[in-house]
Fold:
Amino acid sequence: MAGYVALMDAAGDAATLARAVAQWRDDTPGTKHRHHLNNAGAALPPSVVMDAVHSHLDLEATIGGYEAAAAAGGAIDDCYRSLGSLLRVAPHNIAVTSSATAAYAQALSAFDFAPGDTIVTTNADYLSNRIMFEALSARRGVRVIEAAELPEGGVDPAAVAAAIAAARPRLVAVTWVPTFGGLVQRVEDVGGICSDAGVPYLVDGCQAVGQLDIDVVAVRCDFMAATARKFLRGPRGIGFLYVSDSALARGMHPLLVDMRGANWNASGSYSTYDGARRFEQWEQPLALLLGMGAAARYALDAGIARTAARAHALASAAREQLTRIPGVRSLDHAPRLSAIASFECEGHDASALVPALRALGVNVSSQSRDENAVALGRLGAGSLLRVSPHYYNDASDLDALEAALRELLTP
Structure:
């Protein structure tokens, strides 16, 4: 637990941090029942998140859905303000969507791709994103180019610059924190290159929001997709899209804009709204939106810089602790690592270990070659066990995982 101890020392006041951890755990009922180390999948929400969801559902059941929406108007506006504060932007830059994947698709649909257009991306794409690119390739004749990696891991910004010079792409797309391991990509460096070249830039921030301290303007992207359910600790079934002022000024909007995002004019045409709302759809799960807003406020109150440092220290401790188990190998090798730690367990299929660990009260996740053959092939692993702690986790969670793995891996 050297990483955990280092975090305590760096905090300057171990007692203050210990009290904060105790409060975070007390605010999270699930910690009393599970050792939850699957925050990259879906984190345990604090009580205030579920209270917000339940309260609005109760209000809808009591006075009606439209009437509850009207009553919650101020609280809904505050959700946009809180999400904007997470990224250090204004509320008008935020669009609410049903998921990060839906947000990503809305952003992609704002481009009128034509045969021969090029998308430059990396080999660390989220699988759903890559499938979308391949669908565009099959249906619209779009070329997909992977920029080369740095020797130490992660996309090489110079390779992106070279691809831009050679292919003049319609879009550059980068996944900030890949789902399969600890890598953190150099999205700011890529953003500077895209901005200077005038090439639109789309970032998948699904695993970054709630885990990293983000200034999205410094990333210099046109779009960033995110979800509530992962490190932000919100409910499932909702996400959001950041849209830059420059993208809005260029009039970008999704292919299938609806009456949430546009006005129908008397002339028979439509005009989009000024802000990112043009990327939304009219029907929204307002209870989940209020839960996502509560999660954003909770994250801001906890202090993103502090909670990010703690989550990363716990992941570092997990790498140190679990690799002491015979046959367990860390798959994370990069200059900057996230709070996602991945491991290969020699002679064991990680997908079989997940339910066995769950039965012992420990939640983690896995990936196999069937789910992501490219990433697993690069890592030289048949399958991986993904461990993703967050700031409300503590030493007891890592100890429980180590003990359970030793039990399962012992012949």
Notes: The CA atoms of residues 328 and 345 lie 5 Å apart. Residues 1-11 have pLDDT under 50 and may be disordered. The first strand starts at residue 35 and ends at 36. The chain is about 45% helix and 15% strand.
